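Quick note —
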Amino acid sequence: MMSTKGTLSAGRPSAKTNKAATLASLADKATTKRVNFDLSAEQHTKLKVYAAKQGKTVKELLTDFVEQLPSD
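Predicted structure written out below.
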């Protein structure tokens, strides 16, 4: 007799989630905006090296910078 435990099943994994919980978790998040701009290869390398020396990702570094800007 073969066990069915651990076998694959058809269907979308997302269909098995609790939609109410998913919507509630989305409601807790602040709206975000994507920022996209071009840097030269040299500027990009400089930014990545600086972020690494700070122990941060580029995203963390730039987010922290924006948080420090005056609100005026």
